[in-house]
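ok here's Putative membrane protein, seq below lol
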Amino acid sequence: MVKNNIPKQAILIALASAVYYVESLVPFPIPLPGARWGFSNFAVLYSIVEDKNLKNALYIAIFKSILGSLLSGKFLSPTFFMGFSGSVIATLIMYLALKTKKFGIIGISESGAIFNNITQVTFGWLFIIKSAGIYWYLPQMILIGTFSAIANAIVVKSALRSVKP
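and the structure came out like this:
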């Protein structure tokens, strides 16, 4: 188990930040300002599954959110705070899902995606929009998040196969 592998973390943060930026350029199918696909979360999932270290995964989640939002011009915007809170909670949930030893990579990724969406919508309701009407987007977000979570899990499985004999 890797306790503190700064070069690997730096690479994962850089990759996730770049993906975050590219995601900001790709239209999202739901008319919700600031919504993204969630593919940059592959780096957090990879760190959780490979390193099994919550601290490393949180570093990646935090810094990819900050750098990605700086690159896309959304730093400290309402959507930044929604995404940041969702990313941190998703990281904690994925780590807990890993520790239960009842989920595979797809289940870990799905649990993170679902809680990411719930957290973002709840944050938006409580601090930004202040209307429970935002919850109408949640089923659509979870549906799209399901596909993103599966894609992230496939990327992580492929990466793990390529780095392990």
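fwiw The chain has six helices and no strands. kinda neat tbh
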